[in-house]
Amino acid sequence: MENETKNLDEYGMYINMLETGKRYMEMMNKYRCAIMEVETKLKVLNTEFSLQYDRNPFESIKSRLKSPVSIMEKLRRKGLPINEEVLEQQIEENLFDVAGLRVICAFQEDIYALSDLLVHQDDIQLLRTKDYIKNPKPNGYRSLHQILEIPVFLKEGKTFVKVEVQFRTIAMDFWASVDHKLRYKKNVTNEEEIMEKLRICADSITAIDEEMQKIRNMIEA
Ligand code: 0O2
């Protein structure tokens, strides 16, 4: 493929463009604003929940802008042609997680309650859902991923921006962050055994999440 033949200097040139080019800084700023919009919406829902039900549906929110290196790696992984003329368009049309939020909830039921309230707001369009809670990945990964499109109002007018929101429980987040760290360990000889152990841990964590949910339901019955 054309992009696979590009050398590292060219790759570096695109990273530099994304880091310092005015056009790309403006593009990244749209994603930054979109993160702020969605975060505010979630915080508003959290406040309303705590007034009505005396509990917070989420414990914390983390957000991040995808780094230029990760953007370029993902475009390459998707096999998309990379050149200066189409770079901005390739990013906007094919990468849905440049703006990313991770919402950490105590209980599984709150994940669905919160995401339902969010995606039904009339300025939000839900573009895609990947429910890795109902359909876990083979390695045991669980999270609800949703791609939203929201309007961002800039001085030159309204623009629509895609944002990825990942919802998971505290326990799922613990598993995913340990899994993420282990992925970067090189020269692992017993990879299959480790994968199997991680999958077993993911299943145990799910069993605990389900028990915790039952306990809350008993308390609130
Ligand atoms: P980072 O640094 O977390 O952003 P698509 O968006 O459909 O084009 P993709 O990216 O494969 O393709 O979509 P998917 O599967 O919905 O989501 C990928 C993201 O989910 C990853 O982001 C991780 O954040 C998370 N994720 C998915 N599977 C796993 C897993 O097995 N373990 C862990 N720890 N996280 C996972 P990135 O792109 O890896 O990077």
Helices, strands, pairings?
Blueprint: H1 8-20, H2 22-53, E1 58-65, H3 68-77, H4 87-94, E2 99-105, H5 108-119, E3 125-131, E4 144-154, E5 157-169, H6 170-183, H7 191-220
Parallel strand pairs: 2-5
Antiparallel strand pairs: 1-2, 3-4, 4-5
Helix pairs in contact: 1-2, 6-7
The chain binds ligand 0O2.
Ligand 0O2 is lined by residues 66, 70, 96-97, 100, 130, 137, 139, 141, 145, 176, 179-180.
Q: Largest sheet, if any?
A: 5 strands, mixed
Task: State mean pLDDT (0 to 100 scale).
Answer: 90
Instruction: Say what oligomer this is.
Output: single chain
Q: Strands across the major sheet, in which order? A: 1-2-5-4-3
Runs in which pLDDT lies below 50 for 5 or more consecutive residues are: 1-5
Helical content stands at 40-55%
Structural class estimated from helices and strands: alpha+beta
Separation of the first and last Cα atoms: 59 Å
Beta-strand share of residues? 15-25%
Walk me through what this model shows.
This protein has about 220 residues and is α+β, with helices and mostly antiparallel strands. It has seven helices and five strands. A hairpin with a 2-residue loop joins strand 4 (about 145-155) and strand 5 (about 155-170). Residues about 1-5 have low confidence and may be disordered. The site of ligand 0O2 has 13 residues, from helix 6.
